[in-house]
Every structure is written in structure tokens, then in C-alpha cells.
From TrEMBL:
Organism of this sequence: Cystobacter ferrugineus
Region (Disordered) location: 32-59
Superkingdom, taxonomy of origin: Bacteria
Gene3D superfamilies named among the record's database cross-references: Porin
Protein name (Swiss-Prot/TrEMBL): Uncharacterized protein
């Protein structure tokens, strides 16, 4: 392995990691017994990365709670002669405020050029069956994209999600208005749909509004099934679109998930497949667990422009309670824009409060 160059920004990333690892004491919470993280089914689909700040159902009165997380990563990529790089992947802080029927959240990422991530208000009825969101948050499209990065057993969302959101501006965080219906008695049916600000074209002109819709059910506790769609410029004839179907299964420590997406982009029709498997192994120590993980993805452009990409990832995570994890992973991938496939090794340390 070649000799790496550790930049000043890299040293700042490491210092930020060590600093925030001690920040849990800032939150005014009673000391709790550390328990291994468990692969429980999430209470609801997050529209933000601030799941740590969500209100508990049995809480009363006005509450304000800070939350945050930091990810620091060192990686070595075959396509760059295994030169080591240290980066601060995320340094996120936020504030969640709540009343019985109203919640608000603001989140910023200090490591990003676009610091503001989430800023929204959520209004609900007394039974929590109806919710209305307004502000900037995640559009309800792609299960992989909606999952909090903290809960993902892999370091990245993957080439399919990145290609759709970053390259073709489908989904992700947008200014918008969204309604949500939750019917627990009907297999915990959840329907989320809204209208969102459109992307900008190559000249910087804002395009028309987009629309997104997601439906999910849980026939039984271990299984969740879902479908979602995203439509661009929906009031001007819908130029591009994508549709996805997903399933996740949780049995004890085992978690399996898969998602299929298809549609039409500016480059023509496309298809994508994502699969992920992990298993939680408590170590018998106070709060510690081991989590092996493996995943695969495939992306195909099937129009006049034909191309193909793929990614294979495997690794192991070391978890401590719900506040710290270390991830060691290897990925062999051919991403859009790459001339050749390459191997990348990564080590990531993460903490949250």
C-alpha cells in the first residue's frame, strides 16, 4: 500500500470524532444500562436523519431535544493506487421540538457545503393516523434512501440510490408539502404522498414541481412490503419517472432487504436491483455486538445508451449500545463513469447522541 497523505482537514475530522464521542453527556437523560443494539422494526419511516430526536408516544407537554452524530472514514481505493484518504463523512447536529400534536425539526451538517439538511414541521391528529409535513425533508421514494444512515449496516446507500438522486435528481431532500395516513388495523398500512420543489436544469433554471408517493404494509411483524414512485415536472406532463418495490424481513438477529426500481431517465429506460443481508450477534459483553454484512447491486441502462454497473460489498460492524459503531468493509464496484471496476477498503468510526 502506498504512503498516504493525511491532510489538515483529515486531522480536523479525527478531532471532531473524538470530541463528539463525549457529547452524549450533554443530553439531559438518566444514565441507562448499556444493551446491545437490536434489529427492531422501526416505528415509522423517517423523513429526516434525525430519528434520534423523535418524540416518544407517551411523552407529554412541550419538549426540546438536541441530537447529533459524526462519521469519520479512512479509505484506500485500488483506482487511486490505494492512496489513503481520511474524511469527515458527516458531522450532523439538530434540534427537535414537540407538542402533543405538533413537531418541528432542524438539522445541519457541518461537514457539507450545503449545511441545512432538514427543516420541517409535522402536524398530527390525536390518533396519529393523519400527519401533514411542510418544509424541507426526504421525499417518500426508495426504501434505501429513506433509511437513516445510522441504521444502514453499510457505509453508503449504494450506486443505484446515488445515481438516481445525485446524477438524475430523483428523490432526496426537497422543499415540499406531504400528507401521510397510518392505519394500524389494516396491516399497518402507511400511505405517504406529496408535491416537492423541482430540480434545476443545466442552466440553473428551476424546473416544475415533482411528486412522490409511497405505500407500505406489514402483514406480520417480521415482514414489511412497500412500493414507491417519483415523477418529475408532474404538472407539465412528467418528463422522467421511476417506480420501486421493496421488501424487508427481520427474524431475530437476521435482517434481509431487497429493492427493485425501474423507469425512464434523460438517458433512457433503466433498471436497478439492490440486496442487503446482515446478522446481529451480541457478544455477551455489556452493550457490545458484532454485525457481519453483505450486499449486492446492479444498475442497467437499457435505452439507446447502454451501460451497466454493479457493486459487491462485505464487511463487519462492531456496535456499542446505540451510540457507537466501527465498520470495516470492502467493496468491489463498477460505478457510472468508471472505466474499470475497482476494489476499495474502508474503516469508519461513528458516534451519536
Amino acid at each position: 500500500m502506498g504512503r498516504g497523505k493525511w491532510s489538515t482537514g483529515g486531522r480536523r475530522a479525527l478531532m471532531a470524532t473524538l470530541f463528539l464521542m463525549g457529547a452524549r453527556g450533554w443530553a439531559q437523560e438518566p444514565i441507562e444500562k448499556m444493551e446491545p443494539p437490536s434489529p427492531e422494526v422501526p416505528a415509522r419511516q423517517p423523513v429526516s436523519e434525525g430519528g434520534e430526536g423523535l418524540r416518544k408516544e407517551d411523552d407529554r407537554g412541550f419538549q426540546v431535544r438536541p441530537f447529533g452524530r459524526v462519521f469519520a472514514r479512512v479509505s484506500a481505493d485500488e483506482r487511486e493506487q490505494y492512496t489513503r484518504s481520511l474524511s469527515l463523512q458527516s458531522a450532523r447536529v439538530g434540534l427537535a421540538a414537540s407538542l402533543p400534536y405538533v413537531e418541528a425539526e432542524v438539522t445541519a451538517d457541518l461537514s457539507s457545503k450545503s449545511m441545512l439538511k432538514d427543516a420541517f414541521v409535522r402536524v398530527a391528529d390525536g390518533s396519529k393516523q393523519l400527519r401533514l409535513y411542510g418544509g424541507q425533508f426526504k421525499a417518500p421514494f426508495l426504501e434505501r434512501e429513506l433509511e437513516s444512515r445510522w441504521n444502514l449496516p453499510v457505509m453508503n446507500r449504494g450506486l443505484v440510490a446515488d445515481y438516481l438522486e445525485d446524477t438524475h435528481k430523483l428523490g432526496g431532500r426537497r422543499l415540499g408539502l406531504m400528507g401521510e395516513v397510518n392505519l394500524k388495523e389494516a396491516w399497518k398500512l402507511r400511505i405517504s404522498g406529496g408535491v416537492f420543489e423541482g430540480a434545476k436544469d443545466a442552466s440553473g433554471t428551476r424546473l416544475g414541481e415533482d411528486a412522490a408517493l409511497r405505500v407500505s404494509v406489514r402483514p406480520f411483524k417480521a415482514l414489511t412490503l412497500g412500493a414507491s414512485t417519483y415523477l418529475t415536472e408532474v404538472f407539465d406532463g412528467t418528463r422522467h419517472h421511476a417506480m420501486a418495490a421493496d421488501a424487508s424481513l427481520r427474524l431475530g438477529g437476521l435482517e434481509l432487504s431487497g429493492e427493485y426500481v425501474t423507469g425512464r431517465l434523460a438517458v433512457g429506460p433503466f433498471m436497478g436491483q439492490m440486496g442487503l443481508a446482515s446478522y446481529m450477534l451480541p457478544l455477551g459483553l455489556d452493550g457490545w455486538a458484532l454485525q457481519p454484512v453483505a450486499g449486492a447491486e446492479l444498475l442497467q441502462l437499457t435505452g439507446p445508451l447502454k451501460a451497466r454497473g454493479y457493486a459487491l460489498v462485505g464487511g463487519i460492524n462492531i456496535l456499542y449500545s446505540r451510540h457507537f459503531k466501527a465498520q470495516l468493509q470492502a467493496e468491489h464496484a463498477l460505478r457510472p463513469g468508471d472505466e474499470l471496476a475497482g476494489l476499495e477498503y474502508s474503516l469508519q468510526l461513528a458516534t451519536r447522541f
